[in-house]
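Exercise 3.2. Students should predict the tertiary structure of the chain below and write it as structure tokens, then compare their answer with the key that follows.

Predict this chain's 3D structure.
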Amino acid sequence: MLSIDLRRLRRPLRQVACLVGLLFGGATVLAAGSVCGNGIVESGEQCDDGGLLDLDGCTRTCRYEAIQRLDSLAIAGATAPSYCAVTTNAFGGAFSSQALPTVNGTLQDAVDTDQLILLLDLLGLDDAAGQNDDDLEVGLLGATRDSEDPNPGGLDDWYLVAEDLLDPNGMPVERLSPGSITALELNAGPTTVSLPFLDGGALTLRDGAVRALVSAAVSSPAPPPTALAPGLMAFETLDGSADGLCGNATVGSLAVVPVPSVPCNAACSNSRSYVGCGGGPVTTACHSLLDLLVGGCRTDLVVPNDCLIEVVEPTQPDVGVGANPPAVLTFGPSGGGINKVSFSEPDDAYSSWFTFTSERAHATNNLGVVFRDGFESGDLLGWTAASP
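Answer key:
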């Protein structure tokens, strides 16, 4: 009996292209006598699930799909490392040492509760153990958990990548390149990328770059794919706690990230009060993260209006466009009747630095994409199920 999972029928054009490729010679020839997409793991292949789609554990070139899920993410408050294009870290430095642990606690809670799922896809990685590779890219993806994961909670969890972050070929739109791994150190960028962030917002990072240590610990990954080359081992984690991800967060992107819930006291100097967006997108009637950075925030510790706790110091962007310095940002009335920051150059930016750690994961958008009879990704060569 043929069973169709409608939840996974999301990209009909790519699915048809894959099936047509298998039927009419679209498989990829690797080593002499090896054909990627025939369902048999042969010489030169790390896997072969019988399909030519990515996001199912085995790439269209029959390489193991090296994906990491960020299991920790934090805004750094110190000066950024030297690999960053701008090391000032105006964004992280705007948060006081008193407030930053609380802000990062909120950010980590979003990661822990799956409100914020960020995946790194190491595109073109040939060395699954992650020791050395001189030519790769790092895709940035947002995702949700796959409810069909048979064993959630740890290495090799399953995730469904957000459709709008993929190009027509099913590949990540946002990529850090050029990239490489040398002696277990991953480096990629600088490139302008968009980083999924809190409450549906995204940060555009000019000169985005990543540096992290690849774990020496390797293991045989759990499916998918089911069939791996004998002895294939994949690295388990990345550690970006000393370096991480940096870039210059644009004014335009910060203006569409909703303001976090902070009890700011407008009666204090260098502070304003802010209207939250109620879990929705930024509108003219609510404030953004940019408004908070420019306006600043202080709150009370013991008695009303003691203003003893600084949360955010009013901070201007520190990175302009080309040779131009960044414009000074000010508040003005909006159509919603509240004062919001206005800007003329959306690509002016705040230098920023984030630290992270991650663990091995799987993207499963195209796992069993048409046939649900035990074969992966439209495995025509293994398909024997009859139609109803």
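Discussion points: The longest strand covers residues 349-363. Confidence is low (pLDDT under 50) at residues 1-26, 370-388.
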